[in-house]
Amino acid sequence: MSWDEERIAATINRQFILSHLHSDEQARLDQPLGFGDGLTDDTYLDWILEKARRLFLILVDLELTDQIFGVIDDSWDDDDLPIPLDQIDHLKLTYGRDERVEKKFFQRQFHYLVKSIRKGDHVHYEGMEVVPLELAEKRSLTQSHIDKVYLPGKLDTLLLRRRVSLGPLSGRMPEEEFLAGLDSMRVIDHKHIQSLWASYIYRGDGYLLMSPVNDSNLKSFLAITPQSFKILPKQSRRILVMNWIHCLADGLSHLHSKGLSHRNITPSNIMLDVDYQVFLGDCGIFSHAAAGGGEKAGFDKASYDYAAPEGAPRPSASALAHTTHSRPPTRNPSTRRATFPVSPTTPSSSSTDNSSNYPSSNTSYSSAHPPTSPHRHSKSNSYSKSDPQKADIFSLGAIFLEILSFLLKRSSKSFSSHRSAKNKTPGRGGGLPDASFHKNLGQVETWMSMLAKDASKKEDKLFKGVSHILGLVQRMLSLDPLDRPTAKEVEDRLYVILTDYCGMDKDGNSEVSLHCSHNMTSVKQVSLSFDQLRLASQKAAAEACARVAGTPANRGKNSPESMSPTSPITSPISMKSEEAWRNDPIIGMPMEKSWQAPIYAGLYPSSAFIKLIGD
């Protein structure tokens, strides 16, 4: 238990002091100081209350409170703390020198010399100093590099603590790079991003105090839905889940606006608190090995499965034996993930002219490749295919599909099996087939068609926007990064869909309300433009089906020709003119290219899906 100034002041008073003294000693408290020679009217009680509160508490712990008078007579006070071990014998706490008592005094004094830690602080604690944090769980950091703590006496200030091993050795991070990483993290302060609350260094390790604190993550939630969630009213559950989509987009939009990228958007890094509010997990500025996790396998399957095609990590030969024989195409070594933290760049108006970001937490820190100065994209490559912000959009689109699947009562396990259904070639050693999103976009498309069909059967108005969200997700999963929307555009589109089509209240005045507020120049104008886009999409869908089938637009929708999976159909949402795309207040971006499933996916977008999106 730590003692800060506030707690000491609240504890030490006349009654407390009297309770720890014998009756004959109590009478002496109100006597003038023995060394004052009549020059002061201060008493021993005055000295304790004003100058020796900590000294008295230490003597209470040692059960030597009767020695307080001799200590005061020798003019000792709290300003003399901490007292070096070889000087404690000058206090004359015992009749004969007792090294055991002296050592105990030396150690105990640091419990009353606590340096407090507040939001935004970075504190350096010396070896014997006490860090003013209490464990919220029985498990200690010796068992894991992550635990939960709170400030003394403030149970409502729950924090996630993460240890980062510092030093020049392999698997550790130099202190100067740790401090540079903290500077990058301080620019993030958002309720839907796990952000840095404070930090400190203690006994050769760095510690991050993060907030908010997660109770679970999306991966575990999708695997086994908690009973506490199941007992919520059905409508409350649906509202929560629909809000997750907008809240995640809101958080990522904030991150990108700071010129940063996340680079580790996976179900295990989408966090849920005890109230099932969602937020993006640690951006991974510090490597797993440096963060006390020891050595980690070089291939992270979750990161691979949810990664964008241009930035998917390439599995090593050993990892292939446990995953798949196929490797994602990589055109440029620059698409690999960085292994060092860098500082944020100055964000542009589109939040794309940057490459400063957080390295993935699954990378290993290597002292052989020290961090370099911040790198910034030049204008010529600001929209390069290795743009990590565009990769974030792809990963977030995959997460949206997982959330929508749960909403429509389809399991994540079934979704994974569906993605790998056309890719049954096992890896070396009999590994699992590749179930990644970027390798199986054709199967992802058919799954989206099933979700759209499921949603169309629901009477609840909340489901009326699902097909529009799927249309947005289709763009987020574009093979070409240039065709993906920005995080801000995703946030804006979702806001319109959830308020105009799902009937969610943007002002928070009803039970069916958006969790996040939203700033938009003209909501009315945006809503009208979206309605116009919807009508144009319906018309374009009919024309596209007619062209593919070679028949008039009013041909039967269930005819074999119009449902052919081998026909290269253009998505109706991409058939607006380029000028219309640029001027649309919702999209505000160039015209989308027609999305066609890659050859390795083995399937083109289905006409059934296109029709449902148009509806």
Automatic annotation (TrEMBL):
Residues 135-496 form the Protein kinase domain. Residues 322-367, 559-572 have a biased composition (Low complexity). Residues 310-387, 415-436, 551-572 are annotated as: Disordered. One of its GO terms (molecular function) is protein kinase activity. Gene3D superfamilies: Transferase(Phosphotransferase) domain 1. InterPro entries: Kinase-like_dom_sf, Prot_kinase_dom, Ser-Thr/Tyr_kinase_cat_dom, TF_kinase-domain_protein. It comes from the Eukaryota. It holds the Pfam family PK_Tyr_Ser-Thr. This is Protein kinase domain-containing protein. It comes from Scytalidium lignicola (Hyphomycete).
